Give the backbone structure.
Amino acid sequence: MAHIRLPEHLPGILGLMAFRPETARPLNELADILLRGPSTLSPADRELIATVVSSRNDCFCQAVHGAVAAYHLGGDEPLVQSVTRDLDRAQVSDKLRALLSIAAKVQCGGKNVGARDVDHARSQGATDMEIHDVVLIAAAFSMYNRYVDGLATWAPTDPQVYRDNGAKLAQEGYLAVQQSIAASAADEL
């Protein structure tokens, strides 16, 4: 049970968005920019970054963003799972592996990222913008994870819920989903 009164049918951050739509909008704008906006990193790559960070934070958000990543990857759930279980052996590009390693270090604390990490990412073809964005995605998703966990929101147990929501987020974006949640939940509070 959540620490505050939230709409009972809305899991995780969705319940928090309905509770406080004025904070939901900027959080979703940031997520939309970071995960769907113009970038040389694919939406799948960026969702994998969010998934790795959420996994290392032991937050159920890993299932949400893993489902979005899998959708972008044509349903390749085993690849998403391999990135969270054993990054060194996951079938991703060397550049993405280097960026995911930076994300994992940011999740532990920003000062854990060193010049060697950045130099390695650059040697694998990462640009300054990609390095910037991976650090910001990792920092933002550490915040989002702490937000949902700090208020003890609940998580669905059915993997199909994540697949369905992942497809919707991939197709419509974070702002569109937040707007539909806020509209439907306003009367319940």
Summary: The chain is about 70% helix and 0% strand. Residues 2 and 152 are 5 Å apart (CA to CA).
